[in-house]
Structure formats: structure tokens, C-alpha cells
């Protein structure tokens, strides 16, 4: 295959990536700016780490981060279980009652505006509380349930598409050799599609960690997540601590993605 | 007591009405919606046979094989293996193993664990598993590769592992789906003989699915030719080749020259056919059963035709003149396409037995003739 | 095979309970009256007398939406903004996806990683970055002023321009990825065959690549268009108080006005508006995976 690309395409790529990364780079640069005005560079005192210290001692942000972390981990794990079941089912079972509905229910959340999902879940929780007394008030539980509902749709897509390129002969061979279907799933299928399941977990984690709108609708007093805290700060204007947060987040995400990518590239191509 | 295919061919249990079939397929059909993939197939396969299902893609042979393995449930009919009704038994409970076309080796396990997998499912003692795996690997000559993973093996090596994996459980029946399809020509020939020798040693009954008639002819003790979901003819390779029962079989296995004609003499010991296509008469030294005035076809194999530049003496039956239109030189033999005055093209093959034989060239006028025993008459 | 049933039953029931049922409740509440209570709406069913149940369906909420021009303008504006943003994303994103799909395999992985990386970092934070760039004493103005290109800071923040930039910026990866997935599967030899037969590169692109990538284009556009219609964060942070988007209207009705029934009515109307597009998206996905099989 001829790998040359036209000048036009290369220019577009260059501008496109510049567009994507200039804001990010500007945030990183200004996180070292001493001035409280953030975007006005204080040459005399910068670069400095003082805002980094400030952030790491900011109780409000740390508490919110802790809540976000717990919700994200439980959400990711739960979504992966639900999403893998759904993705596997949709890929392998070509016909079953409710297939159309399940397919629709796992693709709709991908495009649905979050305000609608958020509102509808809150109203559900309120109605349930009136009817059966649970959940009592909104908080981490309701947020986690809400997050799992839309995250699992993403995991379903990831697993489903992985299963599409999975050679069914492997599962048939295992059954032919005496393994029952459940065993085949855990001993053959799951180990092979593991990278896809892992990326589903990471995806669900990120979606939950970054979520603002649905969290705002379904959270309660004392259960503010990190994005909610950031949003309330950001509505008031720029703040140097947010720049620091952005830089740290980017650093961690980059490190994780690079590690995972390198690990996946090193693995021999399984099927 | 092992039953090798060779000894089975000698014994010919299919001609013995009292012989008990090992695999009995009784009126099996499989429909996918409106499409009938397998249509009312009945077969008896005997212990120790290498039985080949031969047909073009879409003829239903793979579907039939999968039903034997338990991966598809028949729409109607029953399957008996060693006397037991296995129709509804799932694959993990059948004493049947399959070698998949893509080999389906588990990529995350090494060769040893792949081969041991089936034995582990049967909860066999660790020591025994190790011993049987070692024996099997030795048999397929893969002992040195025990710790390698599938992606580190070549195509031929993977095939041997797949074979070992499917045989280590000593199944009653081994199903092979296009076993040689992925191999190149030289390796294919070599593996064909290896397969036969392996079957000979272990005595397992093989059922092979293939679209390659050469493969079927080499491996099989018997062949079942399939078309549109039906078995059109079942028999030994020589029976299928020398005595095809229909135009389809005659044309599918090997090449053939078909002369359409009408019976002009119909006696118990011989028939004479007039073929306008050929521009002459064909004398066949055996009787056939056909209604009078029926249209029949005489099938003559290319290698059974004599070609000479001078007219042979004798009767005018089984003799035509033509001009050589095309020659394909294949090294060991040559294929001649001879055009008859009627326009029909006849295919003749001759081995190149001598380097200095009279070379027949293009446009040359030749006489084609054949023995009275050579044509096979088919009525459909 | 009940084993199969169990596998799909769990996700099915979960989604039924937490995705579908809530919409029914939203529908129900959109028909109820506002009440100064917790929760701030009157119940739909009421016992009247001993044996009769009255269902009071209040269509006022919907009537209100159709009569007050604010809502109609918000719906219309949201669709307009989403449409334009989708076209912008396509204009920038298609060449990028194309460039990545045609790159050397090693380079391709790096480029993909670079596209995905922003996607994994918080949307909120990246939108925030633009605030820092666009504001009166923000980075862009500072640079332009110090270079002497302008004498007064440009007003960029809280303008439609800023909102479009924010939306395109956030949703660009959503267009690139499905489009790339589609282009990657293309048989590039088709283009070589076309050129061999006398087609110029641009013609080959127009006649072969473009039609074959149709599903990828549609999928990417749907992934941008549909959520953008209901977008909330970007209009608030970059668009300013005058950015009239329906997502923001819903939020304000709910949180600021505590008008749950009206907010529900807005949600239902928004849903009705978007369902045809969602079905189109699912259709495109089904065709794409059927083609792949």
C-alpha cells in the first residue's frame, strides 16, 4: 500500500492536532504561573509549584476526588460485568426474545443527551423513595447506579465489537473437547478478550470520573464529585488550582494509556 | 484391536448386510429458514473407515459434519454413533472430536496445554494426562515444540497440534473439516500420507469433509459425493471414478467426456448408442437399464482414449476423427483438446512415456478410439 | 437454553429498570401540576370518593412550552448549533481520519493515541482551557496585544464563536474515531485500480472513498449531532447567558425554577425530537456490522 498522503491531508492533520493540543498545553504551562490571574504571566515569580502545593492541601477538592474515585471504581467494575454479559449475548446469541430491545437499550445511552438521562434517573429515584422508601435520599448509591446505567452501554459496544472478530471455532473446539459453555467462557473466551474488557473498564472509569451532568442530578448533600466542584469554581472564572488539576489529570491519564498501549503491543496477537 | 482403513477396504463391510454400521445417519435434514442445507441424507459408516464427504461449497457437507459433531441440531432425522442415539447430545458430551479448518488452537495456551485440554475436562489424573500428551506429541512429531505457543508455529505444525489435540481423547469418531485446505501442494501430499498412517496406527474412524477430489481420492476408503444437500453417490474411490451414477458425479470427480446419444440397440450384454454430438456410434460392453428411446450419456475418461495419427483397424464403433486444437504440457502428462467435425471438443490425456515419441502437434488430424469397456452410461 | 436467558437477563432487567422506566416517569410528571412540596409536583392519580380513581392529565406544561417563544427558540437554536457544529467537525475531522487511516501502521497507532488522549481527559477541564484562552486578559488576547496586532482585547468569551469552538473541540474525537474505523477497513487497492483506469486522485476520492465511507460519516455525525442538541456545559461556560440551548433551559427549569413538570415536558419533547436521529444511528450501525460480516 502506498503510504504517501497529499499535502492537503498532512496540513489538515497538523492543524487538527495543533487545535486539539494547544489548549491543553496552555493549561499545563500556566499551571506553573505564580500569578493568581492565571493567564497573565508573572515572569518575576514563575515558574513555581506553589499552586501544586495549594491543590494537594485543598480539602474540598480532595474530598470530592475521593468520592469520585469510589464511585468510578464501583461503577467501572459493575459496568464491566453488565456490559460484558450484554456484549457477549448480543454477539453470540443471534436470536432471543428481547434482542431488539436490548440492542436499542445499549445503543441509546451512547447518544442520549445527559440532561435527559440525568433528569429521568433523578425522577425515578424520587418516585422509588416515595413508593418503597429506597433509595433514602440521593448520594453515592444513586450516583453509582446512574453511572453504571450509561457506562455499561459503552462497555457493551466494546465487548460486542471484540466478539465480532473472535473466532467462534475456538469456543466450539473447547466444547468439542468436553468443556461446558460456562467453563468455555471463563477458560477460553474471557482470557482472550481480556484487553477489550480492560479497556472497557478504563472507559467506564473515565466516563464516571469526568461526569458532571448526571452526577449533578443524582447526587445529594455531601456527595459532590470532583467535576461538580470544578464546575462551581469554573463558573466563577479561571483558577490556578484548576490548571494544576488539569495538568495532573493529563499526566496520570497519559501515563496509564501509554503503559496499557505498550503492554498490549507487546502481547502476541491472540487471534 | 485396531481397524485400519486399509483392512476395512479389504473387508468391504458396506457390502455385507449383516455388518453393523458404526455411524448411522438416518434421514437427516437441516433447514435454515426456507433453505434446505441438508436434505434427507442417510448413510452407514463402518468402524475404521476414512469416509470423505466430497462436494462443492454450499453443498451441505460442512453442515452435515457439524451435525455429527453436535454443533447443529438436525431439523429431522436421527444420528446413531456406536449404537447410541446421539442426535440431541451436546458436543461436550459426545465421544466425537473435531479438527477445525482453522485449527482453532487456543492462542493463550502452549502446545502441551492445548493437547491436554480435552483430557483435563474429563478429570483424568495428572500423571496419566502427561503420559498421554507426551505419547501423542511424539506420534505427530511435535515433542520439541511442547512449550511453544500457537503463534510461534508454522501452518503445518499447527495442524499437527490440532490433530494431536483431537486424537488424544481416543474418540470414537474424528471429524475433519477441510484438513489440508490451508497447506501448500507439497505439504498437502506429505500430510495426506501421514494422516493415513496415523489412522492406521490408531484405528479411529475418520469422517473428512473436502471440496478437493484429489484429497478425497487419496484419503478415502469411501467417498460420499454431495450436491444441494443430498448424497448423490457413495462408494469407494474407484467405484465413484469408474462407475459414476450420474452426469454430475462423472463430471465432478476427474474430467470426463460426455457424449449425448440415443440407444439404438439395447441388449443384456451390450448397448449401442448413436451420438449425433460425436458423429458416430458408441458400443458399450455391458447392459444398462433405461426405458426405450431414452436419451443417455456415455462418459469416457480422457485417459482411456487412444490417440493415433493412423486409423486403427477394427469396427467403426468407438472411433472418431478430429483436429488437435490445444495442447497443455504438464510434464508428466499432456492434455489434448481435439475438435470433432460436429464441433464437440474432446479431452484426451496421454502420459509422456517417451522423450522421443512422435510429437502430436496443433492442427494435426488424429483418430480417437477407446475400448468397449471404457464408457460408462448414465441416464441422468 | 435457559443459560442464554440468564446471560442477557441481568443487563436487560437493569436497563429496563434504570433506563426505560425513568422515561415513563418523566412522561408521567410532565402531565402533573407544580406543587410547593417535596417533591414539587402533585400526584397523577387521586382517589376520588371510595371507588373511583381520577387521572388528571395537565397539558398546561406542554401548552406553555409551545406558547412561550423562549422554548421554541431554544429548540430551534439547539438544532441549528448542532447542525453547524457537525458540519465543522466533519470538515476538520474527515481529513484527519483519512490521514490517519492512510498512515504507516506504526505512525497510525501513535496518531490514534494522540486523538484518543484528549478524549480520556475531562471534557470539563478542556472546555475550561478555552476560557483561559478566550477571556479578555486571556492567553490569545495577551499574545495579540503584545505583538501589536490589536490595540484592544477582542471579545471572544461568551460569544457564539466561543461556543462553536468549544463544541467542535470536545466532539471532534467522536467523529474521527468511527470514521477512522470505517476508513481503516477500506480496500485501498480500489483507488489504485481507479487510477490505473484513468481516474485522477480527487475524482477517485469523490467517486470511491467518499461513498464507501458513508456509514462512517453518518455514524460520526450522529455521535456529534444528537448529544450536542442537548449540550449543557459548553453553552454555559463558553456561550454566556445569551446562549439559548435547550439543555441549559432544562437545567434552569429544574434547578433554578424548581419547575419539575415543565422540565419533564421539555425532556419529553427533546426526546421526541431526537428519537428519529437515534433510530437512524442504530440503522447505520446495523448496516455497518452487516456489511462487515
Q: What assembly state would you assign to the polypeptide chains in this entry?
A: heterotrimer
Number of domains of chain B: 2
**The CATH topology of the largest domain in chain B, please?**
Rossmann fold
Distance between the termini of chain B: 43 Å
Residue share in helices of chain B? 10-25%
- Per DSSP, the total helix count of chain B is 9
In N-to-C order, the SSE pattern of chain A is HHHHHHHHHHH
Distance between the termini of chain A: 23 Å
Low-confidence stretches of chain A: none
Number of beta-strand segments of chain B: 20
What overall geometry of chain B do the principal axes of the alpha carbons give?
globular
Helix and strand layout, with pairings?
The complex is a heterotrimer of chains A (271), B (380) and C (293).
Chain A: H1 7-30, H2 50-56, H3 59-92, H4 99-111, H5 114-132, H6 140-164, H7 168-176, H8 181-210, H9 213-218, H10 226-234, H11 240-266
Chain B: H1 5-11, E1 23-32, E2 35-45, E3 50-54, H2 61-69, E4 76-81, E5 84-85, E6 96-99, H3 111-121, H4 126-139, H5 155-167, E7 173-177, H6 185-202, E8 205-210, H7 213-219, E9 222-227, E10 230-235, H8 237-242, H9 247-252, E11 257-266, E12 271-275, E13 280-284, E14 295-300, E15 305-308, E16 319-329, E17 333-339, E18 345-351, E19 365-370, E20 376-378
Parallel strand pairs in B: 3-8, 3-9, 6-7, 7-8
Antiparallel strand pairs in B: 1-2, 1-4, 4-5, 9-10, 11-12, 11-14, 12-13, 14-20, 15-19, 16-17, 16-19, 17-18
Chain C: H1 2-30, E1 45-48, E2 52-55, H2 60-67, H3 69-101, H4 105-120, H5 123-134, H6 139-146, H7 160-184, H8 189-196, H9 201-212, H10 214-229, H11 233-239, H12 246-256, H13 260-292
Helix pairs in contact in C: 1-13, 2-13, 3-7, 3-10, 4-7, 5-7, 5-11, 7-10, 7-11, 8-9, 10-13, 12-13
Amino acid at each position: 500500500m502506498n503510504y504517501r498522503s497529499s499535502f492537503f491531508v498532512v496540513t489538515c492533520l497538523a492543524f487538527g492536532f495543533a487545535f486539539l493540543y494547544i489548549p491543553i498545553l496552555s493549561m499545563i504551562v500556566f499551571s506553573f504561573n505564580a500569578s493568581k490571574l492565571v493567564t497573565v504571566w508573572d515572569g518575576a515569580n514563575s515558574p513555581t509549584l506553589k499552586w501544586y502545593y495549594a491543590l494537594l492541601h485543598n480539602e474540598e477538592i480532595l474530598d470530592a476526588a475521593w468520592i469520585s474515585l469510589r464511585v468510578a471504581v464501583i461503577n467501572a467494575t459493575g459496568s464491566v460485568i453488565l456490559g460484558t454479559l450484554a456484549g457477549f449475548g448480543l454477539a453470540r446469541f443471534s436470536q432471543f426474545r428481547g434482542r431488539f430491545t436490548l440492542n436499542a437499550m445499549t445503543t441509546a445511552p451512547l447518544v442520549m443527551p445527559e440532561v435527559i438521562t440525568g433528569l429521568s434517573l433523578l425522577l425515578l429515584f424520587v418516585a422509588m423513595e416515595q413508593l418503597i422508601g429506597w433509595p433514602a435520599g440521593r448520594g453515592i448509591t444513586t450516583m453509582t447506579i446512574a453511572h453504571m446505567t450509561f457506562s455499561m452501554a459503552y462497555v457493551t459496544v466494546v465487548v460486542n465489537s471484540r466478539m465480532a472478530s473472535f473466532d467462534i471455532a475456538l469456543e466450539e473446539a473447547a466444547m468439542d473437547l468436553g468443556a461446558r459453555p460456562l467453563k468455555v467462557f471463563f477458560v477460553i473466551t474471557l482470557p482472550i478478550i481480556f484487553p477489550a474488557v480492560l479497556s472497557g473498564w478504563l472507559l467506564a472509569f473515565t466516563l464516571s470520573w469526568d461526569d458532571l451532568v448526571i452526577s449533578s442530578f443524582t447526587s445529594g448533600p455531601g456527595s459532590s464529585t470532583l467535576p461538580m466542584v470544578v464546575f462551581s469554581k469554573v463558573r466563577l472564572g479561571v483558577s490556578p488550582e484548576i490548571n494544576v488539576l488539569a495538568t495532573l489529570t493529563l499526566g496520570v491519564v497519559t501515563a496509564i494509556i501509554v503503559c496499557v498501549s505498550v503492554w498490549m503491543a507487546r502481547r502476541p496477537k491472540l487471534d | 484391536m485396531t481397524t485400519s482403513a486399509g483392512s476395512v477396504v479389504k473387508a468391504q463391510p458396506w457390502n455385507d448386510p449383516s455388518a453393523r454400521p458404526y455411524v448411522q445417519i438416518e434421514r437427516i435434514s437441516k433447514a435454515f429458514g426456507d433453505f434446505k442445507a441438508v436434505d434427507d441424507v442417510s448413510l452407514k459408516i463402518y468402524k475404521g473407515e476414512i469416509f470423505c464427504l466430497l462436494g462443492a461449497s454450499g453443498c451441505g457437507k460442512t453442515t452435515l459434519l457439524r451435525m455429527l459433531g453436535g454443533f447443529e441440531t438436525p431439523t429431522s432425522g436421527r444420528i446413531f454413533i456406536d449404537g447410541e442415539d446421539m442426535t440431541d447430545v451436546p458436543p461436550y458430551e459426545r465421544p466425537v472430536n473435531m479438527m477445525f479448518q482453522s485449527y482453532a488452537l487456543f492462542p493463550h495456551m502452549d502446545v502441551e496445554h492445548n493437547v491436554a485440554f480435552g483430557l483435563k475436562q474429563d478429570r483424568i489424573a495428572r500423571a496419566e494426562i502427561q503420559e498421554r500428551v507426551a505419547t501423542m506429541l511424539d506420534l505427530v512429531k511435535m515433542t520439541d515444540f511442547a512449550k511453544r505457543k500457537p503463534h510461534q508455529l508454522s501452518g503445518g505444525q499447527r495442524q499437527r497440534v490440532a490433530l494431536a489435540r483431537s486424537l488424544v481423547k481416543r474418540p470414537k469418531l474424528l471429524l475433519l473439516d477441510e484438513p489440508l485446505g490451508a497447506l501448500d501442494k507439497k505439504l498437502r501430499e506429505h500430510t495426506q500420507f501421514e494422516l493415513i498412517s496415523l489412522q492406521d496406527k490408531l484405528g479411529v474412524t475418520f469422517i473428512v469433509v473436502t471440496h478437493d477430489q484429489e484429497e478425497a481420492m487419496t484419503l478415502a476408503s469411501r467417498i460420499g459425493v454431495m450436491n444441494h444437500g443430498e448424497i448423490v453417490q457413495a462408494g469407494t474411490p474407484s467405484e465413484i471414478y469408474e462407475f459414476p451414477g450420474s452426469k454430475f458425479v462423472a463430471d465432478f470427480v476427474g474430467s470426463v467426456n460426455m457424449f449425448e446419444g440415443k440407444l439404438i440397440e439395447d441388449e443384456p450384454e451390450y448397448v449401442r448408442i448413436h451420438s449425433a454430438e460425436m458423429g458416430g456410434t458408441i458400443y458399450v460392453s455391458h447392459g444398462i437399464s433405461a426405458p426405450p428411446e431414452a436419451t443417455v450419456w456415455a462418459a469416457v475418461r480422457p485417459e482411456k482414449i487412444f490417440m493415433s495419427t493412423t486409423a486403427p483397424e477394427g469396427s467403426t464403433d468407438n472411433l472418431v476423427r478430429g483436429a488437435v486444437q490445444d495442447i497443455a504440457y504438464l510434464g508428466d502428462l499432456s492434455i489434448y483438446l481435439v475438435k470433432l467435425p460436429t464441433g464437440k471438443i474432446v479431452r484426451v490425456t496421454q502420459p509422456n512415456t517417451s522423450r522421443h515419441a512422435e510429437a502430436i502437434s496443433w492442427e494435426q488430424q488424429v483418430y480417437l478410439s477407446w475400448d468397449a469397456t471404457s464408457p460408462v452410461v448414465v441416464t441422468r | 437454553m435457559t443459560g442464554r436467558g440468564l446471560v442477557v437477563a441481568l443487563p436487560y432487567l437493569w436497563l429496563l429498570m434504570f433506563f426505560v422506566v425513568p422515561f415513563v416517569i418523566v412522561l408521567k410528571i410532565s402531565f402533573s401540576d407544580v406543587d410547593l412540596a417535596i417533591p414539587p409536583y402533585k400526584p397523577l392519580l387521586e382517589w376520588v370518593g371510595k371507588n373511583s380513581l381520577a387521572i388528571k392529565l395537565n397539558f398546561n406544561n406542554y401548552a406553555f412550552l409551545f406558547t412561550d417563544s423562549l422554548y421554541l427558540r431554544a429548540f430551534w437554536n439547539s438544532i441549528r448549533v448542532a447542525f453547524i457544529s457537525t458540519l465543522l467537525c466533519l470538515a476538520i475531522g474527515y481529513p484527519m481520519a483519512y490521514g490517519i487511516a492512510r498512515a504507516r501502521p506504526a505512525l497510525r497507532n501513535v496518531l490514534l493515541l494522540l486523538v484518543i488522549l484528549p478524549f480520556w481527559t475531562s471534557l470539563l477541564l478542556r472546555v475550561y482551557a478555552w476560557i483561559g484562552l478566550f477571556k479578555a486578559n486571556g492567553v490569545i488576547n495577551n499574545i495579540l496585544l503584545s505583538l501589536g496586532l490589536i490595540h484592544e482585547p477582542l471579545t471572544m468569551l461568551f460569544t457564539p464563536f466561543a461556543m462553536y469552538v468549544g463544541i467542535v473541540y470536545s466532539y471532534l474525537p467522536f467523529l474521527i474515531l468511527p470514521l477512522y474505523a470505517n476508513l481503516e477497513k477500506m480496500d485501498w487497492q480500489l483507488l489504485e485500480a481507479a487510477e490505473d483506469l484513468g481516474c485522477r486522485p480527487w475524482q477517485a476520492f469523490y467517486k470511491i472513498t467518499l461513498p464507501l465511507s458513508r456509514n462512517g460519516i453518518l455514524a460520526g455525525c450522529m455521535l456529534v449531532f444528537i448529544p450536542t442538541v442537548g449540550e449543557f456545559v459548553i453553552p454555559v461556560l463558553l456561550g454566556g447567558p445569551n446562549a439559548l440551548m435547550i439543555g441549559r433551559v432544562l437545567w434552569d427549569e429544574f434547578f433554578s425554577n424548581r419547575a419539575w413538570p415543565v422540565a419533564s415536558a421539555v425532556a419529553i419533547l427533546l426526546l421526541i425530537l431526537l428519537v428519529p436521529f437515534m433510530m437512524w444511528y442504530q440503522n447505520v450501525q446495523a448496516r455497518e456490522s452487516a456489511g462487515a460480516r
